[in-house]
Specification:
398 residues; mainly beta; Methylamine Dehydrogenase, Chain H; four-stranded antiparallel β-sheet; 28 strands; globular
Length: 398
């Protein structure tokens, strides 16, 4: 067992989980937690949805908490869960992803299962119906990673292909269709994907050469190619180059470049691209800055909410953008800012999961801390209230 030294408490086990791809890439569950080159800390994985969170536990069981209105918790009910609920998905889980109102997982067997809102075909089972219990994604048997969004979802296969299903419009599925695909369709031009992220109406894949390809709705320049026309087939964000983490959400996207630079693009009406100003659209990747207008460097992973973003720099977390629900973690429930500030009061952090209006992180001692919007229980601490500063929610790792 390879263990990373220098971080107390939670042990980093790089050998315990199977690697179906053979390239060392297990990836994360959605647009918000990226570890493209190693298994996840403590064999634990956060996968943030809109207002619910998922977690793959060290024993590869699944926990889900937060909003359950559409059955996205997966426990057979349509109620919120303010603490993590154990969900039976039929086998060990290797990837979990929360979408808007649905959840998807990849099992160690290679099967995919989804549940929650399904009337746009985003569950991939061929039925186009909402369900509060897991259903099998059709026709795919070698899935290693799931990425759920709003009206669509995608899967990465062991051979590096990407397949998507749901609403075809605006290029969500990497196709020119405008209807619904109730079963997976192959995304053309992607054959070496090692990380997959979806959010809102956009999907991005990190390829074997560490470059990114993105596609889908682009009216706010979410794809980052300098235009605001929907992108129907995968394209590389302009000037981004090699990346180590990428995250997409409804109006904007962010990435950490291979050199640690943090960049964002898309809508900036509340400073959600973190570029130091408010207003307009950043149509290509632009550097996130701190309060002194210096570029944010040393990034390891990034997560994008609806109108805010966060990056993990080593064991610290920095956030920017809207703060209506306290999602920046700086203690102010109202004011936001268009530049990154460090979240105070956290122990050393090793993993990041950013939901629409909240954030959860895994600390090096194995505890999960959350902050921001909590009205649907998405902070996982049994409370139904917003928290503008981090609170300890539960213990993830022994």
């Amino acid at each position: 067992m390879a263990v990373v030294a220098g971080v107390a408490g939670c042990r980093f086990n790089f050998a315990a989980l199977p690697d179906p791809t053979g390239d060392g890439a297990l990836g994360g569950g959605d647009s918000d937690s990226t570890f493209p080159d190693a298994a996840l800390p403590c064999n634990f994985q956060l996968g943030a949805g809109r207002v619910h969170q998922t977690a793959v536990m060290p024993d590869r069981s699944l926990r889900v908490w937060g909003d359950g209105m559409y059955g996205q918790i997966g426990d057979g009910l349509m109620v919120d869960r303010p603490t993590p609920a154990v969900i039976n998905v039929g086998g060990p889980v290797v990837s979990a992803s929360g979408g808007r109102f649905e959840t998807c997982v990849a099992l160690a067997s290679g099967q995919g299962r989804c549940w929650g809102e399904g009337d746009s075909g985003q569950l991939g089972d061929g039925n186009g119906a909402t369900t509060s219990t897991p259903v099998v994604v059709s026709n795919l048997t070698t899935i290693v990673e799931m990425a759920a969004a709003a009206l669509h979802a995608c899967a990465r296969l062991a051979n590096g292909e990407v397949w998507c299903w749901g609403d075809e419009s605006s290029g969500r599925l990497g196709t020119t269709g405008n209807g619904l695909s109730l079963v997976p369709v192959k995304v053309a031009g992607i054959s070496t994907a090692k990380v997959l992220r979806s959010g809102g109406s956009v999907t991005c894949a990190i390829l074997a050469d560490d470059t990114a390809r993105c596609w889908g709705f682009n009216q706010n320049a979410e794809v980052g190619i300098g235009t605001m026309t929907d992108v129907l087939t995968p394209m590389e964000p302009t000037g981004l180059g090699a990346v180590r983490s990428i995250s997409v959400r409804d109006t904007a996207s962010c990435a950490v470049r291979a050199n640690g630079d943090v960049r964002c693009w898309g809508a900036n009406n509340v400073g959600q691209t973190g570029t130091g100003s408010v207003g307009g659209i950043q149509s290509t990747p632009t550097a996130v800055v701190d309060a002194s207008m210096m570029p944010l460097v040393g990034g390891d992973e990034v997560g994008k909410g609806i109108d805010h973003g966060c990056a993990r720099l080593g064991t610290d977390v920095w956030c920017w953008g809207d703060n209506q629900y306290g999602q920046l973690g700086d203690g102010s429930p109202i004011a936001g800012h268009p530049y990154a500030v460090k979240v105070a009061g956290l122990p050393p952090v090793v993993q990041l999961g950013v939901a629409a209006y909240s954030v959860c992180v895994l600390a090096s001692d194995g505890d999960v801390w959350c902050w921001g919007r909590g009205a649907d229980g998405e902070l996982g601490n049994a409370m139904i209230t917003n928290k503008p500063t981090p609170v300890r929610s539960f213990t993830a790792c022994p």
